[in-house]
TrEMBL record:
Protein name: ATP-dependent helicase DinG
Catalytic reactions of this protein: ATP + H2O = ADP + phosphate + H(+)
Enzyme class of the recorded protein, top EC level: isomerase
Pfam families per UniProt: DEAD (PF00270), Helicase_C_2 (PF13307)
GO biological process: one example: nucleobase-containing compound metabolic process
Length: 659
């Protein structure tokens, strides 16, 4: 129960809103009370809070209050760097100052990232096993560019106080950074490392253990929850912001990868630590894998081909022989250089061995319903060879046991109630029918029916696989002309975005930018500052664009964003749900589409005075049997299928004077 000596949460929120120059919003008040109640009752809570609700403040106020009460930090996890930076650079400093006089001390906070994000002092100053040279393009310009980055990192290493990679502006390539960082598995440990006392990652973790609010990301949250050793300080409460991203981020953390490069890296790292003949066996097995993958078609592997199965067994057994040949893991603890080499070798060998075991164990089940993981071949590129991947068909059990089983979790986003219910995401999180949680929608401060029109182009043909039909291009051009530019075009693929850009750039008399023309940050800046400008992009833009004001009056979505039918993971998950008696299409494909569609539509209204049109060119949103579910996932815009309505509205908006 709350400590009577601390001000009630409503009072703290009122003080914070007043100090920050805001106004009280009913959705924010409802949310702050619900979060406080969930913490008090030790129950999980899912909160859908529309843009403009002020949800960051609504969960930070009760989080800070609980941290003061319990003397234990609250962890806030986000999906994007942008939100992390907003919390640490803007929201938390202002909130801490506003509440300082009302609480026992001024609230404190820190950001904590994975070890790979911090410079390793020991690796920067001592010899370390060579990294994967084959990862490089043998292009002199690329090599010299990497060399310049390495030199810049070395100069920065002499002066940085945090060792945080994000301090490096402009950024550096992964290839350059890898020479100065280690993973958690490769780390020698603070007690054994000669630089342990001044380790940037350990110092960041120590700071996190002393503050009230620790800001981290979903990947690190998953590693902490599912790993053997804790990464985050002990905590009782977690707030998961951008919770619609949680399942995908956790899935990425637990996805295994295997290629000839990962095998050869393990061989190089084991180097002279074991007899050459033992390492050669692993090298030969890796070369066999390389030849197999080069000839195999990409995609999901439903039945393990015999020759691939034998090759994976050979890699598994060869990796184990290398591990055994290296002897006890704690050897050479008094020789840091040797210990570093051994730790790096063990890390890569363990990864190769454990990944092959997972791939082999993904087969041999009596039915599809019993299968736990899916294996697929990811086609290579000019820069990267083909790669086998293995991922779980669901992470619900992991989340239920490891995340929700140990602490109180508050999940929030503007998009959680798909089809008007939390059931879809709750099932993916592992909550499902479990007791001890509730979902609430606190609404939005925007008057959606008055501020926006949802136009579905019912008269257009269904989208095909052969690119954008001419009717779609004509529709896009006419809508943009009516809006006088001011358009964000969100396409289901980069190919479609580029095709539309090429087809319309000369046809329109307004500037047209396309994702990839420059950095996304610069493109969005140009789009926001020059009102007539249009910006076309793909899914990665959908959550990254925040442009309030008259620069954005029209959001065009080319098609309902279902996952590709040949996507290995989503298609396998769909089939798995069906094998267990569920509706695979609705549980996986429709949920996926509803989430992205809602995120895309959410780009339009970002400030109280914003107005405009969401135009979905795909007629299935009006005609398909699942259209009600998708429409129920969107904000309550005024809806129409009449092409003249959005054009007239856009022309009126374009003629309004702007300040």
């Amino acid at each position: 129960m709350p400590d009577s000596h601390l001000p009630p949460v409503d009072q703290l929120l009122s003080i914070a809103v007043g100090a920050l120059g805001g106004s009280e919003r009913q959705g924010q008040v409802t949310m702050v009370r619900a979060v406080q109640q969930a913490i008090d009752n030790e129950e999980h809570l899912a909160v859908q809070a529309g843009t403009g609700t002020g949800k960051s403040l609504a969960y930070l106020v009760p989080s800070i209050r609980h941290a003061m009460d319990s003397e234990a930090p609250v962890v806030v996890s986000t999906a994007t760097i942008a939100l992390q930076r907003q919390l640490v650079d803007r929201d938390l400093p202002r909130l801490a100052e506003a509440l300082a006089k009302e609480l026992p001390h001024e609230p404190t906070f820190a950001i904590l990232k994975g070890r790979r994000n911090y410079l390793c002092r020991y690796k920067a100053t001592a010899g370390w096993p060579e990294e994967d040279e084959q990862d490089q393009l043998f292009d002199p310009r690329e090599v010299s560019a990497t060399g310049r980055m390495v030199q810049r990192i070395q100069e920065w290493a002499e002066e940085t106080e945090t060792g945080d990679r994000d301090e490096l502006v402009p950024g550096v390539s992964e290839q350059a950074w890898r020479q100065f960082s280690v993973s958690a598995q490769e780390c020698l440990g603070a007690n054994r490392c000669p630089s342990g006392a001044e380790c940037f990652a350990e110092l960041a973790r120590a700071r996190a253990g002393e503050v009230d609010v620790v800001v981290t990301n979903h990947a690190l949250l998953a590693i902490d929850a599912m790993g053997d050793l804790p990464v985050l300080p002990e905590h009782e409460v977690v707030v998961v912001d951008e919770a619609h991203e949680l399942v995908d981020r956790v899935t990425s953390v637990v996805t295994g990868e295997l290629s000839e490069l990962t095998v050869s890296l393990a061989v190089r790292r084991v180097g002279r630590l074991i007899e050459q003949a033992v390492a050669d066996q692993l090298q030969e097995a890796g070369e066999d894998l390389k030849a197999l993958l080069a000839a195999a078609p990409p995609g999901r592997i439903d039945e393990m081909p015999q020759v691939l199965g034998l090759t994976l067994q050979l890699i598994r057994d060869s990796a184990w022989r290398c591990i055994t040949a290296m002897g006890p893991r704690g050897a050479d603890k008094d020789d840091p250089d040797k210990a570093g080499q051994r730790k790096a070798a063990f890390t890569t060998l363990d990864d190769v061995h454990d990944t092959t075991v997972r791939m082999l164990e993904a087969y041999g089940h009596d039915s599809e319903a019993d299968r736990a993981e899916v294996v697929w071949l990811d086609a290579g590129t000019d820069r990267r060879p083909p790669m086998l991947r293995v991922a779980p068909l669901t992470v619900s059990g992991m989340l239920r046991d490891k995340l929700f089983g140990e602490r109180t979790v508050v999940l929030t986003s503007a998009t959680l109630a798909l089809g008007g219910t939390f059931d879809g995401l709750a099932a993916q999180w592992g909550l499902g029918d479990a007791k001890g949680w509730q979902g609430i929608d606190v609404g939005s401060p925007f008057d959606h029916p008055r501020a926006g029109i949802l136009y579905v182009a019912k008269h257009l043909p269904q989208p095909g696989r052969d690119g954008l039909p001419q009717q779609y291009l004509d529709e896009i051009a006419e809508l943009i002309e009516a809006a006088g530019g001011r358009t964000l075009g969100l396409f289901s693929s980069m190919r479609a975005a580029k095709a539309a850009t090429e087809a319309l750039r000369d046809r329109l008399d307004v500037p047209l930018l396309c994702q990839g023309d420059d950095s996304t940050m610069l493109l969005v800046k140009q789009f926001a500052e020059d009102e007539p400008t249009c910006l076309f992009g793909t899914l990665s833009l959908w959550q990254g664009v925040d442009v309030p004001g008259p620069s954005l009056r029209l959001v065009i979505i080319d098609r309902v964003p279902f996952p590709r039918p040949d996507d290995p993971l989503t298609s396998a998950r769909q089939r798995h749900v069906a094998a267990r008696g569920g509706n695979g299409f609705m549980a996986v494909a429709a949920n996926h589409a509803a989430l992205l569609l809602a995120q895309g539509a959410g780009r339009l209204l970002r400030a109280q005075d914003d107005k405009g049109v969401i135009a979905v060119l795909d007629p299935r949103l009006a005609t398909a049997r699942y259209s009600g579910f998708l429409l129920g996932s969107l904000p309550p815009f005024w809806r129409t299928t009449d092409p003249s309505v959005p054009r007239a509205a856009l022309k009126r908006l374009a003629s309004e004077p702007t300040t």
